[in-house]
Amino acid sequence: MRKSRHDIYQYQQAYNAQAVVDAESSQLIVVADVVRTPADANQLEPAVRRVPQPIGAVEVVLADCAYVNADAFDRLQEHKVEVYVPVSGEDQNVRKYDYRPPSKRRHKKVTDPRLVAMREKLPRPEGKRIYSKHDSTVELGWHIGSPAGGYGIAKTTPRTR
């Protein structure tokens, strides 16, 4: 149950669906789970661990900015898993041509050296090439399968009924 943002006396039944997609070849969902936790930051590592061994070892993880967790990145990298996650929404939504006026919001400065390294890794040619698979595989699957849309490799979309 989750408290409604709009009505302080209303509670909604909400779930957080997690999915791991094989972005390299088959584009099939290899792991699916539903959790009660509203935040995604602690869901990336457990989702990767649930990939069945017959499928093979996970080598690269692509996720959206909701999964930023420097400690989880370290633990995954200790197991030889390369992680590509935008540190903030601005890093994730880079467009070739953007005619919108600049945002007036102040963005939180990233000071954790692990997150600074991640922020620097994604804009490089190799990072762009690898992360480009995120939108064409994971995002597409969520948008087709979900009327609410979706956001990432193990990204969740809270649903209410």
Unreliable residue stretches? 145-161
Total strand segments: 7
Sheet with the most strands, sense and barrel status:
3 strands, antiparallel
Strand content: 15-25%
**What is the arithmetic mean of pLDDT?**
77
Number of structural domains: 1
The shape is globular
The DSSP helix count reads 5
Strand order of the largest sheet: 4-3-7
Structure description:
- With 161 residues, the protein is α+β, with helices and mostly antiparallel strands.
- The chain has one domain.
- The protein contains 5 helices and 7 strands, in the order ββββαβαβαααβ.
- The strands form 3 sheets. The chain has a 3-stranded antiparallel sheet, with no helix packed on it. It has a two-stranded antiparallel sheet with strand order 1-2. The protein has a two-stranded parallel sheet with strand order 5-6.
- The chain is globular and about 45 Å long.
